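Discussion board: Methods & Data

I've been asked by a reviewer to show the raw model output for two of the constructs in my manuscript, not just the figures. I'm not sure how much to include, so I'm pasting the format here to get opinions. Each protein appears as its amino acid sequence followed by a line of discrete structure tokens. Is this the kind of thing reviewers expect to see in a supplement, or should I convert it first? Here is construct A:
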Amino acid sequence: WLVGPEQNRNLDNGRHNTRFVVDNTIVYTGIDKLTLAVNFDFAGEERDPALVAAGRSNTSSNWGGIAGYAAYDWMEQLRTAIRLEYFKDADGARNGIRPAGQSLNLFEITATAEYKMWRGLMARLEYRHDLADHQAFSVRNPGPAPTSSTQDTITIALYYVFP
């Protein structure tokens, strides 16, 4: 749990815009070869500068999210995982996409296959699908204006884990 003034005092006229963040993670490994986890965050800020600039009468913001994943070790070399995430920016103060004061809900699902090739050399294939309740992704015309409410990503990676 973190709490304290977030903004530069020169910018907030000495009002100490207090921000708080609560971050919790629970991991369960009691089943052989299976890892389960959940993570949730909740946060807020008094007199959020984005909402003050938008002219809102209620200038306190809040946002939060939850993520869960399951990973399974099929054999020593092969592991697969699936992850689901949800993020709610209720006051539109954190997403940087929609105007401040307008909410945005983001969802994500990721499937991962990881293979230990040799010693610490790893190969990873990952597919991610993002979904928003409003246009939030610039996929058709690269640039700052969002053009889609969905986005898909495929990642192929090689990396080395040092012992």
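Construct B, same format:
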Amino acid sequence: MHVNLILRTNDAAMRTAFFRLAPRWRMTDPELSVGESHVLVVDLRTPVQDKWLNPGRGWIALGETPRHFHWAAEHGATLFLMWPCSPEQLDHALQATEQASPVNAVVAWPNNIEWDREGATIKKGQVLINLTPLESDIMALLWGRRMVYTSPAQILHHVWRGSIATEQNVYVYIRSLRRKLERMPDHPCILINRYGMGYRLAPVCQITEREELADAR
């Protein structure tokens, strides 16, 4: 059975990625499919028209910055995916939206990682990892500041909110998150840091000489 898919993008590479999901998913002309059952996917890196979005019907947002994520959340996206992402993640997202599953809180990362903000869980492949409330708060802060580094002092200020704690508490929780996120926690490539600047989440696992990856603090 074919499923109609409307993809709003000007990116040829993105269209190619979706075509690889054939034959289950059938790309359709947006202007000819208004009255048909379909799954809508919108690339937020290109201009978006509000008339495309139906509040009563789920849709998938694709983007690459925190601004894209916040826009998608404000406009009722069923699911937000970081781009680029794997064909497996695309197919999972399309199936979830088609079935109207309650996945609106899920942020899917490359490297086969999904973070559920509301459920405070991370899914790595088939493994479900639970986060503590403070770990989840740190993830939320680092996600919102994904394009910049966040210092231990900033994490302390925003997460502990004046509670009795020190930067040593931050280091303890960062190490705990790395044990849950990383294949090699002592050589992180997802929750990375740069000496003197702090931490940030890297959506694509790339180790470079410029990152101080060995410093587990």
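Answer (T.O., handling editor elsewhere):
This is acceptable in a supplement if you add a one-line summary per construct. For B, something like: Confidence is low (pLDDT under 50) at residues 205-217.
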